[in-house]
Predict the structure.
Amino acid sequence: MASGAIANLEKLRGTARDGALLRYSLGAEYLKAGEVEAAVRELQEAVARDPGYSAAWKLLGRALEQAGRDRAALEAWGRGIEAARARGDRQAEKEMAVFAKRLQRRLAP
């Protein structure tokens, strides 16, 4: 069931305000609501609209990990690290590197 925030954000889809930030916000709200696949879809749309949006890559990786799609999460964080480096966002780069390293350790035999 969609929260009030999700319903309000969904009304903006397809309007002049529809963009990477809206899709990121929708993805974040869906993730909070436990609607992981909906979050993944919106976050994928966010990074498609702005491939340099490191925060969206970071949250996409988290959503993919929660969905059990670990390899895709690692790929998202890898692309997010590249985006963060390109924009000089050292904090996001470091955070995604830590997330990826933890997941790689968990996946290692």
Observations:
- The chain has one domain: 4-107.
- The CA atoms of residues 43 and 59 lie 7 Å apart.
